[in-house]
Amino acid sequence: MFQISRKADYAIRGMVYLALKPQDGVASIKDIAGFAEASRAFLAKIFQQFNKMGIVKSYRGTGGGFMLGRPAGDITLLDIVEAVDGPILGNTCLLGKGTCSRDTTCPVHPVWKDVRQELRALLGRVTLERLAGAMPETPEPSGHHNKSQQ
Amino acid sequence: MFQISRKADYAIRGMVYLALKPQDGVASIKDIAGFAEASRAFLAKIFQQFNKMGIVKSYRGTGGGFMLGRPAGDITLLDIVEAVDGPILGNTCLLGKGTCSRDTTCPVHPVWKDVRQELRALLGRVTLERLAGAMPETPEPSGHHNKSQQ
DNA sequence: TTATATAAGACTAAAAAGGTCTTATTAGGA
DNA sequence: TCCTAATAAGACCTTTTTAGTCTTATATAA
C-alpha cells in the first residue's frame, strides 16, 4: 500500500539529473534516460507531460532536449509526484465514485484528510536543489550546450 | 498516487462494525458485508486473512461469524491497512527488485523513509475504539449472540 | 536539405486489483 | 443422526491500471 510508482521513480531521478546540470543546461532524453535507468520512449512521454505543466522546458531539433522549467529550489518532490501520478489521495472514499455519501458521517474521513495534508507537506518541503546537493557525484561537470545563450 | 484501496476501505468499515457490537459480539459475514457495502464473498476472504493475523476471530457453523481478536482500543488503522495491503512503502526503490543499488547513495531514499514513518505513526494512533466512538449511529444495540458465554 | 531532436497519440503487454465460484469443514439444533 | 447455517480454502475470472512500444509528425541547427 502507498507504493511509489516506477514512473515517479524514473521521473524523480530524471529531474535530479537536470538539476545537477549547470544553470539552464539542456539534456537529451537519451542522457536523462541513461541516468535514470529508464526506457527512452517511456521517459520521453513523462517529460512531455512535465513540459505542459511547466516544470521542464523542451527544445526540438539538433542540440535539443529538456531543461528545468524553473529554478531547482522551486521544484519539489510534491510537484513531480503529483505531475506524474495525479493528486495524492483524491478526496473520494473510493465507493460511490465521485461523491461519498459518508462525507459528513464517516469517522475515517478526517483521518485520510490528515494523512493527505501531512504527506503533501512533507514532500512539498523537499526541493530538487536539496536532492541534487545531496548527490554523491555529478554527471559531466562541463556542460554540453546551453540554451540560455542563444 | 497513494490511493486507498477499495479493499482497505471495506475492511475498515467492516472492522468498525465489529467494534460497534457489544463486547465479544459475533457478526456473520452477511451482516458485516451489508454494513460495509461490500460483496459477501470478497469481504469473507479479507476477514479470513484477518483471522490468521489475529485481529479477528472466526467461528464456523450455525450462529458463527467473526468478532474482534482483541479489544477495539488495541486495533489501529495501521493494523488493518497493513493486514489488507501489506506493509506501507516497502523499502525497495522499485528498480532492481529486492535490493536497491542506491541504498546508500540515493538522496531520495531518506525522504521515503520519513514519509513511511510519518504515515505509520499517524495511522497507528487511530484506534477502532476511537472510530467507533465517532460513529453517528450504532447498528442493532441489542446484541445477536455472544460467543464468550458458551 | 539532411540529420537530430522532441510531440503526439495509437497501440500492446503485463501486473495488480477486485471479485466470483466451488468444494470442504465445522457446529448447532431438530 | 442428519440437515442447515456458517466460515475456510483456493482455483478461477474480469477489469483496471501500470508500464511500455511504435509510428508518424514537426521543429531546428548546421
Describe the 3D structure:
2 copies of one chain form a homodimer. By secondary structure, chain A is mostly helical. Chain A has one domain (6-138): Winged helix-like DNA-binding domain superfamily/Winged helix DNA-binding domain (Arc Repressor Mutant, subunit A), CATH 1.10.10. In chain A, 45% of the residues lie in helices and 8% in strands. In chain A, the strands form 2 sheets. In chain A, strands 1-4 form a two-stranded antiparallel sheet. In chain A, a hairpin with a 5-residue loop joins strand 2 and strand 3. In chain A, helix 1 (6-20) packs across helix 2, helix 1 crosses helix 4 (77-85) and helix 2 packs across helix 3 (40-53). The first copy, chain A, is elongated. Residues 94-99 and 140-145 of chain A have low confidence and may be disordered. The interface between A and B is large, with 43 and 43 residues. Chain A binds a DNA duplex (30 and 30 nucleotides) through residues 5-7, 28-30, 39, 41-42, 44-45, 47-48, 51, 58-66.
